[in-house]
């Protein structure tokens, strides 16, 4: 982040704190209004194709002991974040939770990390500044990218240029907490393949899939971190690269795809910053389980409930998803990405992905 961006983030935080003081001076009870972060206040924006918050709001007001404590904690957090930005430092969400134990008022300390995480989300929404611009980091996600892409990254030791095939080991280039510090210099990529599991990611790299098909293989590492989704969106928007998502064949993995393509309920305030509505789903599909006679596990009760919920989910209101989910409920089975190995270690790179991606018009 540039010095100007850091100053802007700090000013936004201090402006928010100043509002509390102005309310005191006016003789009004200090308060802070934020969108209600519940499923009932999430709307699917048909125009942008992402999840956004609705009109319902919640008020953090000092007219109750609980509300006053929330604002007190917000004030202490703002003070910490402003000093952190001024000093050019950063910290993790976990560290913020523990740091609060050193604050001079017991009432300002967080009772759990969930509470401090939620406060950071509140500050993001109200200030319009992302936590990355606050210099707040999650615990290490370890997500990586491997492929024909050359970048310039801003680090605390200065700029460095990296080719995400030639200058990295088999593990790939590790995505930084704030991918907006990356500048794209050159690329020979034809598409982005976002992969759920580490085992499948390693199989693709070992088989040279990234080199043979000019693919940028992004490891989602399960439910993808914000940094991973942000980089994926930038690769699509700025380099005009198609994005395809490759996951296990179960309802929880379909939601991983949904978070990449349409955003998640938790980060609905950042959907237009993180989500890639044009992302396509490449598999594993329930029809693959039948067509390739893949090794399977039976659906659990929670799997069934999740699939039935997805039939009502706006993100999955398409003919494709309705057919696939209903088929899965009918066969009562789920399957992992690596079940494709039952047809040989090279099947996924020699047959499955090339055929599917050709059908989709990606290859």
TrEMBL record:
Residue intervals of the Type II DNA topoisomerase VI subunit A all-beta domain: 139-188
Keyword Isomerase annotated: yes
Molecular function GO terms recorded: ATP binding; DNA binding; DNA topoisomerase type II (double strand cut, ATP-hydrolyzing) activity; magnesium ion binding
Keyword entries, A-Z: ATP-binding, DNA-binding, Isomerase, Magnesium, Metal-binding, Nucleotide-binding, Topoisomerase
Matches recorded under SUPFAM superfamilies: DNA topoisomerase IV, alpha subunit
Superkingdom per UniProt: Archaea
Residue ranges of every copy of the Spo11/DNA topoisomerase VI subunit A N-terminal domain listed in the record: 70-135
Annotated binding of Mg(2+), by residue: 196, 248
GO cellular component: chromosome
Gene3D superfamilies assigned: 3.40.1360.10, Winged helix-like DNA-binding domain superfamily/Winged helix DNA-binding domain (1.10.10.10)
One Pfam family linked to the record: Topo_VI_alpha
Subunit-structure text: Homodimer. Heterotetramer of two Top6A and two Top6B chains.
Chain's role: Relaxes both positive and negative superturns and exhibits a strong decatenase activity.
Protein's recorded name: Type 2 DNA topoisomerase 6 subunit A
UniProt source species: Halovenus aranensis
Gene: top6A
């Amino acid at each position: 982040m540039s010095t100007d961006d850091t100053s802007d983030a700090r000013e936004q935080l201090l402006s928010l704190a100043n509002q509390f003081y102005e309310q005191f001076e006016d003789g009004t009870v200090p308060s802070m209004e934020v969108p209600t972060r519940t499923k009932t206040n999430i709307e699917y924006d048909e125009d942008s194709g992402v999840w956004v918050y609705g009109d319902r709001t919640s008020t953090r007001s000092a007219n109750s002991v609980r509300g006053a404590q929330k604002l007190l904690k917000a004030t202490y957090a703002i003070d910490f974040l402003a000093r952190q930005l001024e000093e050019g430092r950063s910290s993790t969400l976990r560290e913020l939770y523990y740091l609060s134990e050193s604050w001079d008022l017991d009432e300002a300390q967080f009772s759990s990390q969930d509470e401090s995480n939620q406060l950071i989300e509140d500050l993001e929404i109200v200030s319009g500044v992302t936590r990355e611009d606050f210099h707040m980091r999650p615990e290490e996600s370890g997500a990586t990218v491997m492929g024909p892409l050359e970048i310039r990254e801003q680090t605390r030791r200065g700029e460095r240029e990296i080719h995400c095939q030639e200058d990295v080991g088999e593990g790939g280039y590790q995505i930084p907490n704030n991918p907006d510090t990356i500048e794209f210099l050159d690329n020979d990529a034809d598409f982005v393949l976002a992969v759920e599991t580490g085992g499948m990611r390693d199989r693709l790299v070992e088989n040279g899939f990234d080199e043979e098909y000019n693919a940028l293989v992004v490891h989602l590492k399960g439910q993808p971190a914000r940094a991973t989704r942000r980089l994926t969106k930038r690769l699509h928007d700025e380099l005009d690269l198609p994005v395809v998502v490759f996951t296990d064949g179960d309802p929880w993995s379909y939601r991983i795809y949904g978070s990449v393509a349409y955003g998640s309920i938790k980060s609905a305030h950042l959907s237009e910053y993180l989500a890639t509505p044009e992302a396509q789903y490449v598999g594993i599909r329930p029809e693959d389980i039948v067509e390739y006679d893949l090794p399977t596990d039976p659906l659990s009760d929670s799997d069934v409930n999740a699939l039935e919920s997805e039939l009502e989910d706006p993100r999955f209101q398409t003919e494709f998803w309705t057919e696939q989910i209903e088929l899965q409920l009918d066969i009562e089975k789920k399957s992992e990405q690596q079940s494709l190995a039952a047809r040989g270690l090279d099947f996924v790179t020699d047959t499955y992905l090339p055929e599917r991606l050709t059908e989709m018009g990606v290859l």
